[in-house]
User: Fold this.
Amino acid sequence: MVGDSGLAEARPWHAGERLRFEVDVRGARAGDASLTVVAAGGAGSVEVGLDARQTSLGRATFQARSRLRAGSLRPGPFHDEQDGWGGRRSTEAVLDRSPNAVRVAWQAGGRTGMNAYLRGPAVLDFASAVPYLRAASLAPGARFCFDAVGATSYWRVDGRVGPGTERVATPAGRFEAVRLDATLRRADGGGTPVALRLWIATGAMRLPVAAEAETALGTVRARLAAFTPGQPAR
Assistant:
């Protein structure tokens, strides 16, 4: 994992930040997504949210909320819900409860259950991964890996930071960005691995400006469309 010792002392985001993305599938506009940072629990924690909405190929929504320790940016309570994309599902987990295992409670299609997974050295979730990576040291060519909870399952993420920077054009403007290439795999070996790409701008805000995922539907792309900076705590 890109280690905690490499986290920027000054966070590149503040409470109240909101990032909005346009999402397309195979080049056709398919919906939008947003990432938010809100204050929660006083100075000791931060709450982050991920929301996505598909308006083509059938309406679907996904929402995730994670509460992070302000110092380490490691998550504790996590919850997500999705409606569409195969039915109504939800995930519940407390990621800092045990040093040895992560228990993931899930609901899907009227069924409920709980699965336990042997935890790796670093465990994040679908909402906390991007804020963590924004604050992490991303040395050119460095490898990174972490476990992630989300969408009723437990995942392994393995990737590498690009060797240099790339110019990325988005509706919000043009950015010089670092590219991260990764593969998302289910920890139980099921399903098909998903190739991921994420571009993080090199400016002080370390904005996530673009992302791509290779899915069964084709390439899903998200591009930053607008952003509202947060305000430093007084």
User: Anything to note?
Assistant: The CA atoms of residues 147 and 156 lie 5 Å apart.
